[in-house]
Design a protein that fits this description.
single chain, mainly alpha, Four Helix Bundle (Hemerythrin (Met), subunit A), 49% helix
Length: 179
């Protein structure tokens, strides 16, 4: 079941996409800004993790190096196996690392777990300083967080196509990488 022979069929891919959409709809807190939510926002940790996990379910039976619990190791293995375009994997790794740093900074600044990057105020200034000690303008930090290949960037959307076993590639006109 974990690594089915031949990967997932179209029904499996469709069901996973439906489940992910439901998780996003139900778990994103009311009033949360999806562009700055590090876990469940567009292009956030969840999108990256679901994407590589789908690639793992499709190809890990044949590509042993994909059998990793590390998102970053699995992304690298998928790129090396030709399942994800190298520049897409690099963008997702960069986005994952940044979102993780922001999430950790939120914990340090607020003293409790949080996934929502504040848009203004002392919490934003603290997060910006922890993540990028050279910034003196917290708003420019938010702008850089939202820019490609950052997690919430419109150009960093990762989607699954209708063909379940195609490699991930970058389609610039469609706005990002596709499985």
């Amino acid at each position: 079941m974990r690594y089915p022979v031949g990967g997932l069929d179209q029904a499996g891919v469709t069901e996973i996409r439906r489940l992910k959409a439901r998780v996003n709809a139900e778990r994103l807190p009311r009033g949360a800004d999806p562009t700055t939510h590090t876990k469940l926002g567009r292009g956030g940790l969840g999108d990256i993790e679901w994407t590589i996990q789908l690639v793992q379910m499709q190809h890990a039976r044949a590509v042993h190096d994909l059998r990793s619990t590390s998102t970053l190791d699995a992304l690298q293995a998928a790129a090396e196996a030709g399942l994800i375009a190298h520049h897409c994997a690099a963008d997702m790794i960069t986005a994952w690392r940044l979102a993780t740093r922001v999430r950790n900074a939120l914990m340090l600044v607020r003293g409790r777990p949080s996934d929502q990057l504040p848009r203004y105020g002392p919490d934003l200034a603290g997060v910006a300083w922890v993540v990028d000690r050279e910034t003196d303008d917290p708003q420019s930090f938010v702008d850089s967080y939202l820019a490609p290949p950052r997690p919430a960037a419109p150009a960093a959307r990762w989607r699954t196509s209708s063909a379940p076993n195609l490699p991930l590639s970058c389609d610039q006109q469609a706005g990002g990488c596709r499985v």
